[in-house]
UniProtKB/TrEMBL annotation:
<dbReference type="InterPro" id="IPR008972">
    <property type="entry name" value="Cupredoxin"/>
</dbReference>
<dbReference type="InterPro" id="IPR001117">
    <property type="entry name" value="Cu-oxidase_2nd"/>
</dbReference>
<keyword id="KW-0560">Oxidoreductase</keyword>
<dbReference type="InterPro" id="IPR011706">
    <property type="entry name" value="Cu-oxidase_C"/>
</dbReference>
<feature type="domain" description="Plastocyanin-like">
    <location>
        <begin position="227"/>
        <end position="318"/>
    </location>
</feature>
<dbReference type="Pfam" id="PF00394">
    <property type="entry name" value="Cu-oxidase"/>
</dbReference>
<dbReference type="InterPro" id="IPR002355">
    <property type="entry name" value="Cu_oxidase_Cu_BS"/>
</dbReference>
<feature type="domain" description="Plastocyanin-like">
    <location>
        <begin position="85"/>
        <end position="199"/>
    </location>
</feature>
<protein>
    <submittedName>
        <fullName>Multicopper oxidase domain-containing protein</fullName>
    </submittedName>
</protein>
<dbReference type="Pfam" id="PF07732">
    <property type="entry name" value="Cu-oxidase_3"/>
</dbReference>
<feature type="domain" description="Plastocyanin-like">
    <location>
        <begin position="367"/>
        <end position="491"/>
    </location>
</feature>
<keyword id="KW-0479">Metal-binding</keyword>
<dbReference type="InterPro" id="IPR011707">
    <property type="entry name" value="Cu-oxidase-like_N"/>
</dbReference>
<comment type="similarity">
    <text>Belongs to the multicopper oxidase family.</text>
</comment>
<dbReference type="Pfam" id="PF07731">
    <property type="entry name" value="Cu-oxidase_2"/>
</dbReference>
<dbReference type="InterPro" id="IPR045087">
    <property type="entry name" value="Cu-oxidase_fam"/>
</dbReference>
Length: 492
């Protein structure tokens, strides 16, 4: 099968090259090093995102696991201790899979913070290799952000300190070592970080953790015949895609719910797969939050697409669906992701407020000129930002602390048409000004730290850093990040 695919890839490449041999685009691709004799293999990998492996249906035989809420440390002055560890996990019945995890064998716990908290986290590396602890979406000083400069060696521990200054949101944490992020995340390093504030507690949104307020971490994986994770065997330079879905580390999951409103905190924790979520019944749900906070008003949706690292909070009203039989969350190919078993219990009364936040774009922000341009380009290991690969010794941009600037993100098409790049900036939450000159859709009018950028699309965002330091900005297809689709900004 592999041989057949390679011949198909070569045939397609030959047709494309002969069809555009005199075009400026073909010369441009050659200038970017795509005259390499291995080009056919790269093209094949690139196409895999247009024809991604279809996910196998969840059989619903296993109840969805809920990440434990990490208890606060009793030691004076330390809020949490987070350990990166190796372990073995029974993902499949009777078989132990080698995995990585935080404070356990696989994935990680949920850490709960409050706006205004002064936090001290002890991070410990119990792996056999270097790692970092990156707090994705957290507004934090650069030296505590956990980028590739902040490595923690095997057996080493470091303490970070910060004050929580942002509003209620669902964030996450994962490793970010240079060139190794994709493999460490793939093998299980990912955890959750919740922030709460007075505004979020005053609302009637579902908020009983694990009952009607459920975190759902979506990750696709490939397993060997021995049910092991073999990243090196399955790795694709253009983004590793799998055919087996894990949700919170659960294979073939189902979620048992009462006849009530249930809040799902969606996280696309995959290396590269985009997810479009919808209900197989055709019913609507409402989105109430983006990456970094509550929307002003709930937004009814039939479907929602999240690229890697994006989050969204949605509410499904299981008391008022058109049917309660065989209801499931499915993707754009109608693969069953998460079946729901709806009990006869009425559950807890909760509501969806008509007004939840006061997020806004100011006239000043809307009128600011573009001061930074980011061009995403390429595929496989030829990916660049502004024509350059990541250099840990190079600062690409500078910005003043507390000053808002407008960044323009452009996804430049390649000769194959290009692919969606999820763009992420460390240490900040930003506002979307426009997509190709148009106002963003209603469900993106809130705080974001990651944004989907389609081929040939230009997105303008308003960016402000509350803290100083050096921060990464990059494509969150993890293999692209590891291959150098990343830059650095120094906030002074």
């Amino acid at each position: 099968m592999q041989i057949k695919l390679k011949f198909v890839g070569i045939a397609i490449v030959l047709v494309v090259i002969s069809g555009c041999s005199n075009s400026s685009q073909s010369h441009e691709m050659m200038d970017h090093g795509l005259k390499d004799p291995n080009m056919s293999g790269m093209m094949e990998g690139h196409m895999s995102h247009d024809e991604a492996l279809k996910l196998t249906h969840s059989t619903g035989e296993n109840e969805l696991k809920i990440p434990l809420e990490l208890p606060r440390d009793t030691e004076e002055g330390v809020t949490y201790t987070v350990k990166a560890q190796k372990g073995k996990t029974e993902i499949f019945n009777g078989i132990e899979t080698n995995t990585l995890g935080y404070n356990g064998a696989f994935l990680g716990p949920m850490l709960r913070l409050e706006k205004g908290d002064k936090v001290k986290i002890r991070t410990i590396n119990e792996l056999d290799e270097e790692t970092t602890f990156h707090w994705h979406g957290l507004e934090i000083a650069g030296d505590a952000d956990g980028g590739p400069h902040s490595t923690v060696k095997p057996g080493e521990e470091k303490i970070i300190e910060f004050k929580v200054t942002q509003e209620a949101s669902t964030l996450w944490f994962h490793p970010h070592p240079e060139g190794k992020t994709s493999e460490q995340v793939y093998n299980g390093l990912a955890g959750l970080l919740y922030i709460e504030d007075a505004n979020s507690r005053n609302h009637t949104l579902p908020n009983i953790y694990g009952e009607n307020d459920i975190p759902v971490i979506f990750q696709d994986r490939n397993f060997t015949s021995e049910k092991q994770l073999d990243y090196k065997a399955t790795m694709n330079e253009d983004g590793t895609i799998g055919d087996t879905l894990l949700i919170n580390g659960t294979v073939n999951p189902k979620l048992t719910v009462n006849k009530e409103k249930v809040r799902l905190r969606l996280l696309n924790g995959s290396n590269a797969r985009n997810f479009t979520f919808k209900l197989n019944s055709g019913d609507s749900f409402v989105q109430v939050a983006t990456d970094g906070g509550l929307l002003n008003k709930p937004v009814p949706l039939k479907e929602l697409t999240l690229t890697p690292s994006e989050r969204a909070e949605i509410i499904i009203d299981f008391a008022h669906l058109s049917t309660i039989d065989d209801v499931a969350l499915i993707d754009e190919e109608d693969s069953v992701l998460l079946p729901f078993e709806i009990s006869n219990d009425r559950g807890v009364e909760s509501g969806i407020p008509t007004q939840m936040n006061d997020f806004s774009l100011t006239e000043e922000e809307m009128s600011l000129p573009v001061s930074k341009k980011v061009e995403l380009f390429g595929m496989m290991d030829m990916v660049t930002i502004n024509g350059k690969k990541f250099d840990p010794n190079r600062i690409d941009f500078t910005q003043q602390q507390g000053v808002t600037e407008i960044w323009e993100i452009y996804n430049k098409p390649d000769m194959m048409g290009g692919m969606i790049h999820p763009f992420h900036i460390h240490g900040t939450q930003f506002k979307i000004i426009s997509r190709d000159g148009n106002a963003p859709p209603e469900n993106e009018r809130g705080w974001k730290d990651s944004i989907s950028v389609k081929p040939d699309e230009k997105v303008k965002i308003a960016v402000q850093f509350k803290n100083k330091g050096v921060y990464m900005f990059h494509c969150h297809i993890l293999e692209h990040e590891d291959n150098g689709m990343m830059g650095q900004i120094k906030v002074e």
